[in-house]
Amino acid sequence: MGAFPGSNGKSFQxxxxxxxxxxxxxxxxxxxxxxxxxxxxxxxxAKGITWVPIKTATNAAFALGIVRKILEDKTxxxxxxxxxxxxxxxAGGFASYTNASHLVIVDENHPNYRKLMRAADxxxxxxxxxxxxxxxxxxxxxxDQATGQPAxxxxxxxxxxxxxxxxxxxxxxxxxxxxxDNAFEHTLDEYAEITGTSVATMERIAKxxxxxxxxxxxxxxxxxxxxxxxxxxxxxxxxxxxxIGSAQMTGGCNCYRIGSKTTTDGDRYKLATVKGKPxxxxxxxxxxxxxxxxxxxxxxxxxxxxxxxxxxxxxxxWLNVPSTSDNQALVSIVNEYPYQAxxxxxxxxxxxxxxxxxxxxxxxxxxxxxxxVPLHIACDAFIGEHAQxxxxxxxxxxxxxxxxxxxxxxxxxGKGNTVRWQAKQPSTIELSDGxxxxxxxxxxxxxxxxxxxxxxxxxxxxADGTSYPLNDAADFFLxxxxxxxxxxxxxxxxxxxxxxxxxxxxLPAAWKEAVTPEEWPKVLNVLSRGGRFWPIETSQKNGxxxxxxxxxxxxxxxxxxxxxxxxxxxxxxxALRYVPEDFCDRTPIAEVYSEQExxxxxxxxxxxxxxxxxxxxxxxxxxxxxxxxxxxxxDDAAELGIKDxxxxxxxxxxxxxxxxxxxxxxxIARSTFGVxxxxxxxxxxxxxxxxxxxxxxxxxxxxxxxxxxxxxxxMLEDGVIYPHADSDAGSPGRSGGMxxxxxx
Length: 744
Ligand SMILES: Nc1nc2c(c(=O)[nH]1)N[C@H]1C(S)=C(S)[C@@H](COP(=O)(O)OP(=O)(O)OC[C@H]3O[C@@H](n4cnc5c(=O)[nH]c(N)nc54)[C@H](O)[C@@H]3O)O[C@H]1N2
Ligand SMILES: Nc1nc2c(c(=O)[nH]1)N[C@H]1C(S)=C(S)[C@@H](COP(=O)(O)OP(=O)(O)OC[C@H]3O[C@@H](n4cnc5c(=O)[nH]c(N)nc54)[C@H](O)[C@@H]3O)O[C@H]1N2
Ligand SMILES: [Mo]
What we know:
Elements: H1 13-25, E1 30-33, E2 49-52, H2 59-73, H3 78-81, H4 86-91, E3 97-98, E4 103-105, E5 141-143, E6 150-152, E7 164-167, E8 170-174, H5 175-183, H6 188-195, H7 199-209, H8 230-234, H9 236-244, E9 269-270, H10 299-306, H11 326-335, E10 343-347, H12 351-354, H13 361-368, E11 375-380, E12 392-395, E13 404-407, E14 416-420, H14 439-449, E15 456-462, E16 467-470, H15 473-485, H16 496-501, H17 509-513, H18 520-529, E17 531-533, E18 540-541, E19 544-545, E20 552-553, H19 558-562, H20 589-592, E21 600-605, H21 619-624, E22 630-633, H22 634-640, E23 647-651, E24 657-665, E25 672-676, E26 689-691, E27 694-696, E28 736-743
Parallel strand pairs: 1-2, 3-20, 10-11, 11-12, 21-25, 22-24
Antiparallel strand pairs: 4-8, 5-6, 7-8, 9-15, 13-14, 14-17, 15-16, 18-19, 21-28, 22-25, 23-24, 23-28, 26-27
The chain binds ligand MGD (2 copies) and molybdenum atom (MO).
């Protein structure tokens, strides 16, 4: 759901070959649930593939239709759901566990109402505390299957997951029942209506999904989360995988990146340790993006209540679900809330284009206004929509001129880290000391000028205690490569033929000096292979991922249950539930604007031949696809009297207008329009730029196509700019929303 393998999205390369082979032999089938039919190596014409055109922003409903069918048929794995802890699940042959059997206090008068029941609430004695534990371990309460009595979750091997009753005089229900209630909230016919799919499809997938033991997997891409009700949608995949126990199982869902230590404290160098770091901590800090805290936990709230306000409302929402949020940081900066950003330093980002709903005049005016943002420094290789608003642009290197170490995306079950290294000398300005302008050189020089520890001579400490300088990118990244080369078993030294073939003996002397003579041939080995990848055979053990670690699937999220929307007092759902898109106070958008007037939803996707903003200036990529289209379903287009190639106008309730060329096609779900992202630039080479007195003429071809404009949230006070976003996580609602379409 929300990921089209091989079209856009998370790299499919690592598994494409194996997957396509197995589709051919019938060993594997894939259902792709997506409003847009992509153009990848996975297509409905390929064997074993089914495209399910779903209405945007209804993923949770589709998943719950499947859950309901599985519950009705009782085809879930009851043994797995009964496991109240990781040890019991592991002993039962699984590699994850759920809190299905953990009890929730549902007694409204209890002080711990909405919380998971703890041992103390049940009058049970906790095991003695582990003297080594830094934070207290929570002990939850379950009803043990063998005794029928309350027990601590770590002390039961199997527990009831459909329990409702009283424990110690307190009304409780097991977590699983919250999912069950939500699944039975609608009939399959209703789910088919909401999602624009069919009962037969949900029933077929429900049957298929449970008929392979733990060898099936539900996966979500960003298309599952980038709607204003996305947080509930992303709960769909753990909920489904939890019904069959497939997380971290061979052939099941291996869902996170597995790599080795590189740019952190590794086996050779302590790259995360800052020598001489003062005793400061960001632990209780208030992030400018308003995350990690509820409004009721802020100093502002406390001060306003102390000053006599009864029920203060924040200027912008607070979000304790995400850890940080770049798009919300931008929203905070332009609204100067919770505090002003005095200096904005941005690197390699096009925030106003990438934060859906933010590429608008009101935001641009704020960013230009020095009373709002007194100083803005952008470090970028290009003059994009965001960078062109900065007071200073620090030139940076491109991917061919810089280092990068990445842990492989989690679609692949193996372990590995890719390494990118400079393939050419940077084309940026050469500095007086021989370095080239880059983000790393900028950071080092600013840090030195401000006496920030951790940079300059003797900044980096090796595992053996030797100190090394940090003055340029190579000082840091080659040590990260050394950490990778020596992880577990050190790799072999590089072979002479690789040195010759790749001219590794011509690399700059400074690179060799960045590591020890013992490390250098092993570092070269990793560079020559573009990374380090552990043998795929070692990635699985006894039917599980060899890297399996304690993994909990929550059917009831206490954290969410305890949240309370400061505008309306509404609590978010603690379990997977279909909630139509809403505004920040949780009013459904369809209650504010009429669905008759705004009958369409957007589906924004990443196009095959363009990256987020990077390929607009490549003539080759422009030749492949010079612009994007407003893509409409055949039936919708016929009703609107729109033909392929017509100019159409799309509007949203905020008054934004998009005009583009219609592409009428069968591969779009009804009442949805598709738009490829990354088009409709106005900078980034589209504009004229004067550089050192020389005019570089803009190329209008770079500006071709349409940028999707999402609406603003109307529920905040006048003058506040808040693009429509998920109420729990603040992720932009780039897909979904409300639009009207007409022939221009
Ligand atoms: N060619 C290309 N590849 C890229 C990128 C790129 O720009 N271009 N960007 C890279 C980056 S940064 C990332 S994060 C990944 C993202 O990878 P993905 O998350 O896989 O990609 P997206 O295109 O954002 O969304 C995936 C799909 O979700 C669908 N979708 C939208 N709304 C909904 C919905 O409500 N329900 C469902 N079921 N589907 C929906 C879209 O049609 C799209 O096909 O891609 C990476 N790969
Ligand atoms: N509407 C809509 N919005 C989206 C998405 C969507 O699908 N639809 N996708 C979202 C996703 S998943 C992501 S990850 C974000 C990405 O958002 P961003 O990270 O902001 O976008 P990018 O295009 O990846 O890169 C940002 C800028 O980095 C600069 N750049 C490129 N290479 C280099 C370099 O080597 N060095 C330096 N210093 N600068 C460089 C370029 O100026 C480029 O414009 O966008 C998000 N926003
Ligand atoms: Mo991304």
